[in-house]
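Per your request, structure below.
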């Protein structure tokens, strides 16, 4: 799947599932050999661990859904180039366990394979994420 409209729909649908907390729907959009990485050092916070494979990413996503809630989500730009895409977005984020809130801009880089998200790397304010997450 490299048609622009199909990739855009895949990404937007996956994010809609994530933002509403629907883990099963989210995982349907991810490739069996998927990987996910929130760019940052794992020593700063657990959220920066890098899972590979559907089961490991599912576990990470379940933890993220249980921990972070998003509001005021705004897509700033979505660019598709063949099997690669970038999404620039911003949102207000609440860390449920700590009750802390913050506003974040995020840049996501995707690789698409077989009509699914094969890899996702997210870039954001990692110090801000660690501040929200640390009790």
């Amino acid at each position: 799947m490299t048609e622009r409209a199909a990739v855009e729909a895949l990404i937007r649908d996956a994010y809609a599932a994530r933002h509403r907390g629907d883990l099963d729907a989210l995982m349907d959009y991810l490739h069996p050999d998927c990987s996910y990485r929130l760019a940052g050092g794992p020593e700063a916070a657990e959220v920066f661990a890098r899972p590979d494979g559907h089961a490991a990413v599912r576990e990470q996503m379940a933890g993220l859904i249980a921990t972070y809630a998003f509001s005021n989500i705004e897509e700033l730009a979505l660019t598709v180039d063949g099997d690669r895409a970038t999404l620039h977005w911003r949102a207000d984020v609440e860390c449920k366990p700590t009750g802390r809130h913050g506003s974040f801009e995020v840049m996501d880089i995707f690789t698409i394979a077989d009509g699914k998200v094969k890899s996702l790397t997210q870039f954001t304010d990692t110090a801000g994420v660690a501040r929200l997450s640390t009790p």
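The beta strands are 30-38, 68-81, 84-95, 100-113, 116-123.

Regards,
D.
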